[in-house]
Amino acid sequence: MSSGPSFTATVSAITDAFGDPTRRSIYLLAREQSGPDGEGVTASMVAEAVGVHANVARHHLDKLAAGGYLEVASGRPPGGRAGRPSKRYVVVGDPLNPEEFPVRSDDLLLSLLGRALDRLPHEEAERMAEEVGAEYGRAMAAGLTGDALQAGQRSLRSAMQAVADALTAHGFAAHAEGRNDQLRIINNHCPFGDVATEHPVICAVDRGMVRGMLNELYDADATREVGEVTTESSLAAGDTFCATAV
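Above: the chain's sequence. Below: its structure in token form.
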């Protein structure tokens, strides 16, 4: 069996590609439709078969194509029907069996949370997701000690920086900034990844984490209050970064 950095990188790449349950299902569907008599799949075909929005289907297909697992071809609709050429995705080379690669537990839990929240009315789902994040944020703040905690008690700006540092440690690549008399936390990476794209309500968890940490760090002596915490932009919504404003 192969070993070394190249093998490790290959396994990591395959796990990243197929760790998401929805993406695994989409690849399996594309594999079924890419045989001798198959012409691959389109985003609309995948959306109907898997039960996701066409934009979500296209996102997963493009990710698989970028990873080299699918190739993109344009062709007329099946049956020679007239119409705009469709963008079709076909499996490249020898088909892989993603069933051999385990779903990462964090991705699975997030996916289940997203699906559960989607069953609720939107406002109720947002409140619940934000409270889940706030509870986790309070636990994160409780784990901060020393300079981080003391800095948070001096000013809101210092507390924001402590929150940004804590988020970065959890994979958010965050930093704090001030603009137009308002403080923001900017996240250049979202560890929720494709789950947030599929279930944008997950972004409320991020907002809740910020609120929960700030309430612990800035309002530690119960004499000061944190203002409203809002989501200004989101990677899941197609923005270039996530911004949480206070």
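The CA atoms of residues 180 and 245 lie 11 Å apart.
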